[in-house]
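Weekend entry, working from home. Most of the wet-lab plans are on hold until the incubator is repaired, so I used the time to fold the two sequences that have been sitting in the queue since the last round of cloning. Logging both here for the record. First:
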Amino acid sequence: MNSPRQLYKFLSQKKGNVADLVTQTRINQKLSQSLNNLLDPALRDHLRLANIRAQTLILITDSAAWASRARYFSPVLLQKLKNNSHIFGDIRKIDIQVQPATLPPRPARPLPRHISDSAAKCLSATADSIDDVELKNALNRLAKRHNK
């Protein structure tokens, strides 16, 4: 009987684009974790590894202010990367790019609900002519929303 297998193990065994993507993702996760251990504690929450390409470490930050601070610390980080070349390879340059964090959309505030004076009078008159108490109360509540 077949037992369930973790998806990444299944995809890692196959050859092709998906397997390459899974492998690269796992490598980037390990590099990202190693990078966090080298970063200044103040920068850890604001920098993340994007890629390593052509001996360049590409980092993403969430604001221009943190990018500026990261550039200030980049010579120290570059030296740390060279000391850990067995993990990161031969990094010669650090490129820092700003990518603001996406905020969840704010819920739209409901528009104020107002009705005209003539509509309020019509609703009140209709409410006075109705015997159903619940409907009468609902119409009177609506009538109270007129513009003052």
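Second, folded right after the first finished:
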Amino acid sequence: MPTQLQNRPRIVFDTNMLLAIQQLHIDVFSETKKMFGAKAELLIPKQVFEELRNIDKGEGVKRAVRIALDEIKRCGVKIVDVDASNADSAIAKMAMEGCFAASNDAVLRKRIKGFAGKVIYLRQRRFLEIG
């Protein structure tokens, strides 16, 4: 019999979705909680966290990275170890295991939908939608 913890929706975020927090002025974590409820588990693969920290820090991106890292900490997003070679592979692997993948990357979204995975993306640069 599944436990309450196993029934919690798990959402894994891609780097581009995290950068949208500042670039598009959308609180992706709060919006996700509105969609799935307070029990939703927010996750970031270690590969995404490292990718975020190592982005070429031009002036505009530097602020977006800092805000994303602050929001990750403020919202208690869990950073998880995933056995994968890069961020996209880690997200795809987690999606195969039943996580919703929050990404605006068209190639990654298509890859995940190819195996009937669930994707969350930004519609009209303002609204999160499941597709």
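Plan for Monday: verify the second prediction. The helical segments are 15-23, 28-36, 46-53, 59-74, 87-96, 106-114.
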